[in-house]
Amino acid sequence: MITLLEARGIGKRFGGLTALSDVSLTIRKGEIYGLIGPNGAGKTTFFNVLTGAYTAEQGEIVFNGTELPAGKPHLVVEAGIARTFQNIRLFREMTALENVMAGHHIRSRANPFAILLQTKHAKEEERLITERAFELLRYVGIERFADTVSKNLSYGDQRRLEIARALATEPQLLALDEPAAGMNATETGKLRELVQTIRHDGVTVLLIEHDVKLVMGLCDRLAVLDFGKKIAEDVPAMVQKNDAVISAYLGGGTHKAGAAA
Amino acid sequence: METLLQQTVNGLVVGSVYALVALGYTMVYGILGLINFAHGDVLMIGALVALEAIRLIQLYAPDLGLIPTLLGGLGVSVIVCMALGYTIERTAYRRLRNAPRLAPLITAIGVSFLLQTLAMIIWGRNYHTFPQLVSTTPLEPVAGVFITPVQIAILVVSATLMVALLLLVNKTRLGRAMRATAENHKVASLMGVDTNKIIAATFIIGSALAAVAGVMFSSNYGIAHYAMGFMPGLKAFTAAVLGGIGNLGGAMLGGLLLGLVESIGAGYIEDMSFGFLNSSYQDIFAFVILGIVLIFRPTGLLGERVADRA
Amino acid sequence: MNQLALAIPWLGKRNPAAARWVVIALALAAPLIAVLFGKTWVRILDFAMLYVMLAIGLNLVVGFAGLLDLGYIAFYAVGAYTFAFLASPHFDIHLPFWLVLPAGAGFAALAGIILGLPTLRLRGDYLAIVTLGFGEIVRIFLNNLNHPINITNGPQGINMVDPLVLFGWDISQGLQIGESFKINSLFLYYYVFLAFVVLSIILVQRLQISRIGRAWAAIRDDELAAKAIGINTRNMKLLAFSLGATFGGVSGGLFAAFQGFVSPESFSLMESIAVLTMIVFGGMGNLAGVIVGALALTALPEILRYVAVPVQQALFDRVILDPEVLRMLLLSLAMIFMMLLRPSGLIPAYSRYSRPELVVGKESSGEAAK
């Protein structure tokens, strides 16, 4: 297995509060990798460090053999990591199709002059972007809403659209922040299928989830964070038996594992 | 050296007027995250209403002493401005509290221009002479520095008001509710704070301070005018940002500092620029400071909390 | 022009082709209709065209990219003064307009970049107040840079600015046809300005439906999400700012040539606010709305001027509200009430960021295939 991403000794503090300390983990090419942990364990912080929203004080992240630029989200996307948001963030005044087209921004090149002069190349690129965006909408199953303004889509479709938009950046690693949050059982089932298809088509997936059942069933390997530290990294079957994990979930006074499942 | 001392005194006087106005900006911003563009125009309305009231008092009660006349005018103007502040919040801003971020900002600009237009309709375009009821004749110079009674009055009144405001915010129930609302609307209302009332109160208090500032401004310069609120308003906003917006102490510090920089700067700008710029450029100090602060220390001198609303 | 058709709400939806012809016919015939009411109205139309250009440019910044710029008129000033410096007796330089106009546009764009570089990372409301400050600084300099070296001629401004000379033909002289017929220069300026407006519309639409237009809309709708799909938000904002400024610069140049003189008075904060109100009134972000807003808010105060003044004279024997006050009153009320009652503007239209011919019909065929 080839390593796609390696986080080495990530540390992040907010004022006096340690959010992450010495977190190291390895994501392999082609796997679905889960990141779980109780509330406030540092999952989202890690996610934000990974995607360049925060800068970590310690450690580095190596992606595809090169170090990721810290604190520059657009360069992280350029390097091949795309993300979704826990509380869906679409471009609300644009249609579903246009949202995905916007996702192609970084993989298209037309400059202002080419656009103002409508050069052959610019026109062709625009046609290609539109077509590819249609394909992606079809891929996540919402092409019939292509011309619908995104704020009018249903919750589940908005989630799918956000994933399509992330895929439009042509990522090697797709990072999903609690994609099942707020979904019912049917929607979650469909989401599971979609994630598997995405992996099947060659995109590595990083999944941050509260829904332990979904994570256990879907992920090849997972890491568990607690109080900003990694306490386990293994295949789901082994993680389930890990004492530290059990006490983190049950002993910490929360029954999230059972309740969320 | 004497020039420097003199400019320092002048700067403190102007600065304390800025500070009073800055408090209004900073309180509203702290609670709503809104730049109340119309705040400077409340100052203008304050000055013009006071002028009108003083004229009436002088007409119908010419025997009333100078100070009671001034206090009467001030009282009327404070009451009118409090009502005005409440009306603005109630009619223009309240409905837009959850609107897209540009909407309340644009409305605020609209309110500012509406107030100016109304003032233009009522009082015309001319400069009005503001009666100088407190003397503007300098007293005997101390260490070569001239100071006028009106300047002393401005310093005393603004210091008193600032202390009173700090006490109000830190020691009273209303103040506690204001702080809670500024921290988090939802939580505050869950804890039983009527946030609508608190926000209205904030506007009312801010407007009262602006009215006083307007009267002091006009008493010092001897004029009142429909557009007089724009510059002090902008400068007071700068002062609020300089001190750290949302922070009361910061607004006071920012106001005084801005007054000093401006006053001392104006005295030396010609030398500093080798005669290229003269004191008619005095007004750009505020903008330059605003730019520098926002670029290098957007949280201001005393600000810690980075409000990430809007 | 498709968008313009929507400016006629009823016809625009039912019969876009007919609506388009109506719009084109109106645009071409406008000065001929206006002159029936007097030559002043043609002049007002000319100014309306300049405001339309300004509104199109500011809309690019505020409506597309969501950046509230309160000092936009400063770019207009840069364009106008560049024209005046390079084509007037003031420095005794008389360069042709096809050199001066681009120079003004370039300087305005440069000013946009200089202002934007440090300030565009500020949050929206801070940006508003910094740009407001910038507008005032420019005006203060224009007013005072007549000493110690006379650059701007201070409050008096610069007179006798060269008119537009197209291929050796001075259009301010009008057009003599035959012996007895002469087309007034006001008409000619109208058509020149109209050409600029049409060009602006085409260019702005091209930008809107492109990766750049989508990036702007993305930043406006959700800046964090825009970053998360790899948009370099700083560069894109800077681009919006400088392109918007370019439009301001070009209109400023045209203004200087048309008016024949420039003075700081024309570039007050009120003008920035007026242009902002136009786009708020018509509908931020949608081109048809912005154009209608600009036309309406240029014409309305003038109509009021001719109606309200005589009415007041008749009723009260004196003029209580002079035209300038009426204009301010109208603009400020328009701004407040539009935001409170109809925030999407007079003509709320959904703005496209994709080519309709590539989209429409496709989603239904996808449905059929299923």
Shape of chain A: globular
Could you say what the CATH topology of the largest domain in chain A is called? Rossmann fold
- Low-pLDDT segments, ≥5 res of chain C: 365-370
Distance between the termini of chain A: 31 Å
CATH superfamily of the largest domain in chain A: P-loop containing nucleotide triphosphate hydrolases
The number of distinct helices of chain A, counting runs of at least 4 residues, comes to 11
In CATH, the architecture of the largest domain in chain A is 3-Layer(aba) Sandwich
Order of helices and strands of chain A: EEEHEEHEHHHHEHEHEEHHH
Total of DSSP H or I helical runs spanning 4+ residues of chain C: 16
Helix-strand makeup class of chain A? alpha/beta
What is the CATH class designation of the largest domain in chain A?
A: Alpha Beta
Strand and helix order of chain C: HHHHHEEHHEEEEHHHHHHHHH
The largest sheet of chain C, given as strand count, sense and whether it forms a barrel, is: 2 strands, antiparallel
Beta strand count of chain C: 6
Q: Give the total of domains of chain A.
A: 2
Helix content of chain A: 40-55%
How would you describe the overall organization of this protein?
The complex is a heterotrimer of chains A (261), B (310) and C (370). Chain A has 261 residues and is an alpha/beta fold. Chain A folds into two domains: 3-80 and 171-260, P-loop containing nucleotide triphosphate hydrolases (Rossmann fold), CATH 3.40.50.300; 92-165, no CATH class. Chain A has eleven helices and ten strands. Chain A has helices at 43-50, 73-79, 96-103, 112-117, 120-140, 155-167, 185-200, 212-218, 236-241, 243-251, 256-260, and strands spanning 3-14, 17-28, 32-36, 58-63, 66-67, 81-83, 173-177, 204-208, 221-226, 229-234. A six-stranded mixed beta sheet of chain A has the order 6-7-8-3-9-10, with helices on both faces. By secondary structure, chain B is mainly alpha-helical. Chain B has one domain (2-129, 143-296): ABC transporter involved in vitamin B12 uptake, BtuC. In chain B, strands 1-2 form a two-stranded antiparallel sheet. The longest helix of chain B has 31 residues, at 2-32. Chain B is globular. Chain C has one domain. Chain C has 16 helices and six strands. In chain C, the strands form three sheets. A two-stranded antiparallel sheet of chain C has the order 1-2. In chain C, strands 3-4 form a two-stranded antiparallel ribbon. In chain C, strands 5-6 form a two-stranded antiparallel sheet. Chains in contact: A-C, B-C. Chains A and C meet through helix 2, helix 3, helix 4 and helix 5 of A and helix 8, helix 9, helix 10, helix 11 and helix 16 of C.
